[in-house]
Structure formats: C-alpha cells, structure tokens
Amino acid sequence: MKVVIMGCGRVGARLAGLLDIEGHNVAILDTDAYSFRRLPPDFGGTALVGNGTDEESLKKAGIEEADVFVSLTQGDNRNVMAAQIAKYIFNVPKVVCRIYDPLRRELYNSLGLEAFSPTTIFAQMLKEKLEG
Length: 132
Known about the structure:
Oligomer: single chain
CATH class: Alpha Beta
Shape: globular
Helix content: 40-55%
Number of helices: 5
Number of strands: 6
Radius of gyration: 15 Å
Order of helices and strands: EHEEHEHEHEH
Largest sheet: 6 strands, parallel
Strand content: 15-25%
C-alpha cells in the first residue's frame, strides 16, 4: 500500500514507522526538516520537506499513486484542506484527517471526509475508565 502522511509529529512519525515495518511504501511530509528526527532510525520510507496543501509537494510525495492519505498536523484547517485536495483533486481512495474540534469533525464527516477527533476519543476513554 502506498501511503502519504502529512505531519511528522509524534503520531505521524509513529504511524509512518509502523506502516514502514509492515512493508508499506510510506512518504511523510512536514514543513520542518527537524521533525523527521522522530522517525525510527531504520525508516525506509521517504521524508520530504513540504506543505501538504501544496499540489507540487504532494506530487513529489507520490500522491498521484497513493492508496491512502492521512493529515496529522496540529492545524484543523490545514488537515481539512489537505484531505480535500487528496480526495477531490488527486482521487486518493482512502483519506483520513485528524480534527481536534469535535463539532467540526462531525461537520466534515457529514460532508464526506473521514475525520477523527482525538479529543472525543480520549474523553470517551477517560469516561469508560472512570465508570469501569
């Protein structure tokens, strides 16, 4: 599977490493080259400095052949914009984006974007821990 990840923070780097270990073709984009220090030392994928909302950067990352695109930056707006570009311009079959704001996540899901909110997920996990 060809995967393009936007954002090499803790989650992006971890996901890239996990997918790489399983033999997937992984490209990860970040605007800051220093972020790539989070990748495992034996990472066999491609790490590119670039903006995931820029079509040329996405093309360099291999978006035109991607099976999956994941946007994991700290910015909800950037994540949604990049996800829309991947889905509607490059026709990537599976597009997932992180949205911190639970209300916005619901809206984007209703518009056809597959979005998840760590805020909602973690709150639910905490509730279950407290009740269980």
